[in-house]
Amino acid sequence: MAWRLPTQLPTPGKFHHHNDDHVTTSPNNAALSWRLSLSPPLPLLSSSNSKGKFCTQQVVRFKCSASAGGTTGTQSLNMGPGTPIRPTSILVVGSTGTLGRQIVRRALDEGYDVRCLVRPRPAPADFLRDWGATVVNADLSKPETIPATLVGVHTVIDCATGRPEEPIKTVDWEGKVALIQCAKAMGIQKYVFYSIHNCDKHPEVPLMEIKYCTEKFLQDSGLNHIVIRLCGFMQGLIGQYAVPILEEKSVWGTDAPTRIAYMDTQDIARLTFIALRNEKINGKRLTFAGPRAWTTQEVITLCERLAGQDANVTTVPVSVLRITRQLTRLFQWTSDVADRLAFSEVLTSDIVFSVPMAETYNLLGVEPKDIATLEKYLQDYFTNILKKLKDLKAQSKQADFYI
Amino acid sequence: MTATATTVTQTPKLGNSYSYSHCMYNSPIWVLKLNKTSTSTGTSLVTKASSGNTGKGNKRTKGKKTEIIPESTSLPPQQQQPVSLSLDDVNPVGLGRKSRQIFDEVWRKFSGLGQISRTTRADDKESLDALLIREGPMCEFAIPGAQSTTVLVVGATSRIGRILVRKLMLRGYSVKALVRKADQEVVDMLPRSVEIIIGDVGDPSTVKAAVENCNKIIYCATARSAITGDLYRVDYQGVYNLTKAFQDYNHKLAQLRAGKSSKSKLLLAKFKSEDSLNGWEVRQGTYFQDVVAFKYDAGMDAKFEFTETGNAVFSGYVFTRGGYVELSKKLSLPLGCTLDRYEGLVLSVGGNGRSYVLILEAGPSADTTQSKLYFARFSTKVGFCRVRVPFSSFRPVKPDDPPLDPFLVHTMTIRFEPRRQRPVEGPSGMKQDLRSFKLILEYIKALPTGQETDFVLVSCTGLGVEPSRREQVLKAKRAGEDSLRRSGLGYTIIRPGPLQEEPGGQRALIFDQGNRITQGISCADVADICVKALHDPTARNKSFDVCYEYVAEQGRELYELVAHLPDKANNYLTPALSILEKNT
């Protein structure tokens, strides 16, 4: 029933009073705070004059769809009769990403039945299916495709973020709002959301702003949820520094004093599932950080040492990044770029993206020694890659190589 | 550039079924590189791949080709520029494209600087995680050797089987799944690169096809009904058929190499006819000679004969204190066979349930005076049973002698002595004289050695089965276990407690032998044990029960919990199994 949503959409006003007593009052707040801080108005909002109303409409929409689906009581939707949902069924949103695929692997290995929400695309994400996950096609930017994917799902793990080339708001805000509302309406029992560390402190960075508003929106939605704030992924460093150094290409770095506690995504996935099963963590906000915070320069030095060769470093002063951001903001067609560059605002402050983890480890019952350190991670990478390269050289007798 | 293009154009011809192949998993990039070097290399590689997999391998072949596509698109732009100048280089369109590529590259790096949670570009990712995340040694699931191992999963759609197949796929194994019928529901349940074989374990001919090219078998099928016929077909006959087919396949492989399968048993003696009793000698003796014993000696007697019913029976009585009777033969091994390539003996015997001492004489066969004696005790059951006696359980009669070297064994003796006999369980009031015995011999074989387990069988403890059915189910399961034990394959028999459908790795596990467990266990944990057992030498030739650790209710704890949860890179199986008995 649920996927016939758009056709059953009633006029918003009709249901407006109906939901005020339930969920929607607080989402209004979240949306409002969002609106206040965000300068360019959302395109979707142009029809309705208030942001709050927009959110309300969304909720009404899904509520009414659920009642059409058979539950007579509009209030509590997860009490409807039918097949009981197995607690091992989970939906991973953003499952093709760096973190998402580790989540999928971990979940499959722990014996969950994993469904992956993937955008329809010409080259399908085959590796997910090869591992034994079920792939369902949907697009967060098209809300009508979402409900069908949530049928029979117990837990939603949301690790999606828009691709670099697309506008941040489509997936990260509108898509997420639709997903959360839909999850609420369809009685999803737990929702795990990944956010960014310190996102509440940097409203000037659009992505962080959005993540923070989504956190609040999720809290207010009344869903049983866990918010996990992350600092940085070790896996990202490979493409950024390790590969260019091995290829003897130039490495771009900044002179920013910012420190980031990178973490192995495999560890994040592992901790996530421990948190997921711990009833005490319901509704909490956890921050996962790696064992040590690193500056860009430190990471490059480490890579150089492990690779046994000097990097050709091009250091870009943060001020250049800022100026570029200011410039790109001026034009409509480069606003996406400006959003991307917005992190430079964060980089200028000598802020540390890290958090003491002792309490979290304690809460989850994890040994700190089981968390991978960046040194160990990069060392493993370089040992393996250098060995491979040596084998390959012997095989093909060719001097130039790339990864 | 041209060579790469060739590869890509070849791809669509090879079918549109997408699947990944494991042998290529960790090196797709290098393949591409070779392609780039010369067109001929690329082509030959493709043909090799397709010729290598005929018939059922088709699916995999297609996988190899599709693997190449994302790689070819993911070439970093700079790398594609030819070094020498050609006509293409001065083509204005080409130049424009090239400059744009360079600009894109620079811009990408520049804008990447401003990111905190960096997302690597999609094409970067493809080439990277083939190495790092998906299959490479950096993946926490990767197991060395998994890529060259094909595992047959029987019962892939069962509760354990489904998780098991996923776990194997994640670790990079090639997986074959034997299913009864391949309807859509079943196909959807299994990962797509799994090779599905349709067949029934009760049917030896389909099983034969299933074991082809397999290195290991995991059997987690179970009967879905309580009908006795069904139970026996799946739980007993199925295991029997699989072990037989697998051994046959091993023989066939060995014959191709003009040898004998290293997994086959060696027949030492078979008692099928009157003649087979030749060479066996009945002797008697006493451990000590004292006057008192001599006075009350009621004598002893034993005979070894072939009955009309076709059984070779060793029977008699020993009333003398400290007396024994024994049956002995000088072994004559087939040419080229030595016992050091075997790890123990298996005896198929019947009788009235006495225990016996097996004695091996070892030393240079030319000079028997230098022989040293080694003994191991084994007990039998009433009725027929197979007894495994590993060479490691033999101890020297003289404590100073070196441990048994199977290479030097030349004589085997089965001895009966009235000491240390336990009455067998039977109807009460039945009078047993423990000094008389009857041993029916069927065969004696040597068991091959090996490092790892070949066959993992998921059996059950009987807990959680309704009492009315329990005996029936257990009988079939035990029969299946027995047929595996006497197959000569390296085996691991896992008897989990009642299965629960919940995520694994959450609670401590108890490994035990002796049917004492009380708790349930999650399907995912059982699947994990199966996977870990595949390459664990301590799991070879063991049967064990496994369940969750008993957790007392709050305030009613009897003991403190001193255990830890199975965790990342934490191999809990080796320490847990190393203390358990082998050949059980």
Compact summary:
Chain A: InterPro entries: HCF244-like, NAD(P)-bd_dom_sf, NmrA-like. The complex is a heterodimer of chains A (403) and B (584). With 403 residues, chain A is of the alpha/beta class.
Quaternary assembly: heterodimer
Number of helices of chain B: 15
Question: What share of residues are in beta strands of chain B?
Answer: 15-25%
**Rg of chain B, Cα atoms, Å:** 31 Å
Number of domains of chain A: 2
CATH topology-level fold name of the largest domain in chain B: Rossmann fold
- Helicity range of the residues of chain A? 40-55%
Query: What is the 3D shape of chain A?
Result: globular
Helix coverage percent of chain B: 25-40%
The chain-level mean pLDDT of chain B equals 74
Structural class of chain B: alpha/beta
Q: Major sheet of chain B: order of its strands? A: 3-2-1-4-17-18-22-20
Largest sheet of chain B: 8 strands, mixed
Contiguous low-pLDDT stretches of chain B (5 residues minimum) are 1-82, 116-128, 131-137, 561-566
Number of strands of chain B: 22
CATH architecture of the largest domain in chain B: 3-Layer(aba) Sandwich
Strand order of the largest sheet of chain A: 3-2-1-4-5-6-11
| CATH topology name of the largest domain in chain A | Rossmann fold
| Gross morphology of chain B | elongated
Main interface: chain pair and counts = A-B, 76 and 71 residues
Structural class of chain A: alpha/beta
Domain NmrA-like (chain A): 89-336
Pfam families (chain A): NmrA (PF05368)
Keywords (chain A): Photosynthesis, Photosystem II, Plastid
Region (Disordered) (chain A): 1-24
